[in-house]
Amino acid sequence: MPLLQIVYISTARTECTPVQLEAILASSIRHNKQNGITGLLVYLKGTFMQVIEGEEPAMRETYGRIKADTRHYNLLNLIETPLVSREFPSWHMALRTAKASAIPRNPQLLALVAGALDAERLKATPSDALSILSYFAES
Ligand SMILES: Cc1cc2nc3c(=O)[nH]c(=O)nc-3n(C[C@H](O)[C@H](O)[C@H](O)COP(=O)(O)O)c2cc1C
Predict the structure, then answer these.
(1) What pTM does this model have?
(2) Collapsed DSSP state (helix, strand, coil) of residue 14
(3) What beta strand segments (E) does the chain contain?
(4) Relative to the CA of 35, which ligand 1 atom is closest?
(5) What digits encode the pLDDT tens for the residues 35-73?
(6) Cβ(71) to ligand 1 under 6 A?
(7) 9 dihedral zone (left: phi>0; alpha: psi -120 to 50; beta)
(8) Which CATH code for domain 3-138?
(9) Shortest CA distance to 43 belongs to which of 136, 129, 119?
(10) Which residue has the least CA distance to atom 1 on ligand 1?
(11) How distant, in Å, are the alpha carbons of 76, 84, 105, 114, 117 from that of 31?
């Protein structure tokens, strides 16, 4: 069965507390274990960026569930591509956040914040989205 990768960016309904983020993560992991989905979720200053990877039917179901969640809105697909092998195989979901004070010194964080403000531009350069996610995966 072919693998699919989806990357999107979205806006949190309200700025999330650590407890709220942990709740999203816990239910994501529970669902993703059942569905063979792996990926990474980044949260910074009211913006989410997430990569999910898995087999197509499970991906459609999962992305439907994510889109239906009212804790975020303005979902914009940045990448939707078939994969030969997973690029984010390590976690059924992991959460990474960063302090806003780290932004000015860090090109990946700057790109994420700029992308949130100008998501269409990030959509035009999807490799920027992957480099942001890879940066967080390694941090
Ligand atoms: C930013 C964000 C990321 C999410 N990521 C996932 C995910 O990776 N997998 C998933 O099944 N649901 C994901 N969801 C949806 C919810 O975590 C959850 O599955 C949904 O609200 C249903 O939760 P419940 O079955 O615990 O009631 C996400 C939601 C948000 C807001």
Answers:
(1) 0.93
(2) coil
(3) 3-12, 38-44, 47-55, 72-83, 95-97
(4) 11
(5) 999 999 999 889 999 999 999 999 999 999 999 999 999
(6) yes
(7) beta
(8) 3.30.70.100
(9) 136
(10) 48
(11) 22, 23, 36, 31, 30
